[in-house]
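Researcher: Please predict.
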Amino acid sequence: MERRRLGNYGELIARRILEDRGYLILHHKYYTRYGELDLVAKEGNELVFIEVKTRIDRSYGSGLEAITKKKRAHLIRTAFCYLQQHHDQDLPCRFDIIALKLDQRGQLLDYQLIKDAFGVEGGNYY
């Protein structure tokens, strides 16, 4: 499956999983000049920025291994833009990662949801 199509498909699967777990999806593919947020949601009283990683095999490593320091910095900058544009600065927020493992036919084999995967402490992201 072509990479972009696989990513879009994975985001749809992730959305269903998260909604089943009580997340309210606010945005899908939120773009800024710093990058893209795959999903933005609310869970309880928290705003959640969600990175979705979808893999069929391990040739690119696990989805979690793809969240490098550079990728985290892009996600944090993008989240700051979101907060400024949507005036949600007073809401507590966090970053979640959902890593999906699919078989060759695109069927979900397994997933891992990591809540509050990383923070912004001590970083200079502008």
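Model: The chain has one domain: 3-118.
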